[in-house]
């Protein structure tokens, strides 16, 4: 079924009102294209089907926010791409981390029970803090940090300026830094010190890669 911009917008509005039939129509409209696109990354039919189902299920679970998406087709394909890349990375026992003191990249094996426990505890704090962010701030953060969209793509999806996207992301990172920063082990995750309660650009520069590690583990 070929996608039509007007039809997609109508389906979005209906899905936002909990219309399961409209969601089924949207699913049929995009499934095969998303499936073929995803399979080009993972090279496995079963995995590709599962990943597409995950993307569509996540869309349904967030249906109350679907009207905010200005270009649903772009959203679905970028989400499918990022879901595929996450799948590929999660099936490797190695993670890339940033060495705080030297700034060098370090590859570590994730079969470290003690470190994984620390990350799980901090991840729990992060997820709570993310859900407490203001609506637009939370949406921007999730689209960029969890879904992997670019600033430009988020601006297009939400119909806001790239500058607003940047501002909202900074606010989110500032809040998360304040929430989680005190729980980071200074021996492993310390960055440039600041006497201010507001993180500097340098503080965020170190904190962001660490945050990516936490989010990518789960």
| The CATH homology group name of the largest domain | Winged helix-like DNA-binding domain superfamily/Winged helix DNA-binding domain
Structural domain tally? 2
Structural class: mainly alpha
The CATH class name of the largest domain reads Mainly Alpha
Task: Please specify the SSE layout and strand pairing.
Elements: H1 5-16, H2 20-42, H3 45-61, H4 72-90, E1 94-98, E2 105-109, H5 113-131, H6 135-146, H7 151-158, H8 162-180, H9 186-189, H10 201-216
Antiparallel strand pairs: 1-2
Helix pairs in contact: 1-2, 2-3, 2-4, 3-4, 5-8, 6-8, 7-8
Structural descriptors:
single chain, 218 residues, mainly alpha, Rna Polymerase Sigma Factor, Chain: A, Arc Repressor Mutant, subunit A, 2 domains, two-stranded antiparallel ribbon, 10 helices, disordered C terminus
Provide an overview of this structure.
The chain is mainly alpha-helical and 218 residues long. The protein has two domains: 1-91, Rna Polymerase Sigma Factor, Chain: A (Orthogonal Bundle), CATH 1.10.1740; 94-218, Arc Repressor Mutant, subunit A, CATH 1.10.10. The chain has ten helices and two strands. A two-stranded antiparallel ribbon has the order 1-2. Strand 1 and strand 2 (105-109) form a beta hairpin. Residues 185-218 have low confidence and may be disordered.
Question: What's this, in brief?
Answer:
The protein is mostly helical and 218 residues long. The protein has helices at 5-16, 20-42, 45-61, 72-90, 113-131, 135-146, 151-158, 162-180, 186-189, 201-216, and strands at residues 94-98, 105-109. The radius of gyration is 19 Å and the shape is globular.
């Amino acid at each position: 079924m070929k996608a039509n911009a007007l039809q997609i917008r109508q389906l979005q509005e209906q899905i936002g009102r909990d219309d399961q039939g409209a969601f089924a129509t949207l699913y049929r409209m995009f499934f095969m294209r998303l499936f073929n696109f995803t399979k080009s990354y993972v090279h496995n039919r079963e995995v590709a089907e599962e990943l597409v189902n995950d993307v569509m299920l996540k869309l349904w679970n967030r249906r109350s926010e679907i009207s905010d998406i200005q270009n649903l087709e772009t959203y679905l394909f970028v989400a499918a791409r990022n879901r595929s890349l996450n799948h590929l990375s999660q099936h490797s026992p190695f993670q890339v981390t940033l060495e705080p003191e030297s700034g060098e990249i370090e590859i570590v094996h994730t079969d470290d029970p003690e470190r994984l426990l620390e990350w799980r505890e901090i991840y729990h704090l992060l997820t709570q803090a993310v859900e407490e962010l203001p609506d637009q701030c939370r949406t921007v953060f999730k689209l960029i940090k969890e879904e992997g969209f670019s600033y430009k793509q988020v601006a297009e999806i939400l119909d806001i300026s790239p500058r607003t996207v940047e501002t909202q992301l900074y606010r989110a990172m500032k809040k998360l830094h304040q929430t989680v920063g005190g729980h980071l082990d200074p021996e492993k995750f310390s960055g440039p010190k600041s006497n201010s309660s507001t993180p500097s650009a340098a503080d965020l520069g170190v904190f962001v890669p660490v945050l990516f590690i936490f989010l990518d583990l789960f």
